[in-house]
Design goal:
Cathepsin B, Chain A, 121 residues, 4 helices, 30% helix, alpha+beta
Length: 121
């Protein structure tokens, strides 16, 4: 459950919010502030090139950054080596089907209010 996971992060000294981001440009602004995002998406056969699974009704990954050409650098627990790159357009499409939902987690040293402002911007 999303709300329980966010609450648990507080027990670890972190601050977190569940945010609905407008798109990968919005996500990129948070990542540039050193806030990797856990995002949720689902896809059907052929919708996510290079994915280790043919399809998924719900999958949680960490969006850790972007390549020079803008593709998504992701930690995917289903991938053999975890670190993968997926096409930006494919990730944008399948992620926005879930309304751009993401965990935004602030490590120690980043003010909680800053995270809320960034997530809403």
């Amino acid at each position: 459950n999303w709300s329980f996971n966010v609450a648990f992060s507080g027990r670890l000294g972190l601050r977190a919010v569940v945010a609905h981001l407008r798109g990968l440009d919005h996500a990129q602004r948070l990542i540039e502030r050193n806030l990797p995002l856990a995002i949720s998406y689902s896809w059907g056969a052929g919708e996510l090139p290079g994915a280790p699974l043919d399809h998924s009704d719900g999958h949680l990954v960490v969006l850790r950054g972007f390549t020079r050409n803008g593709d998504c650098a992701i930690n995917d627990p289903a991938a053999p080596n975890v670190r993968v790159v997926y096409p930006r357009s494919a990730v944008e499409r399948i992620w926005q089907r879930n309304n751009g939902v993401a965990y935004v987690v602030a490590p120690v040293g980043i003010e909680y209010a800053d995270v809320l402002i960034s997530a809403a911007s």
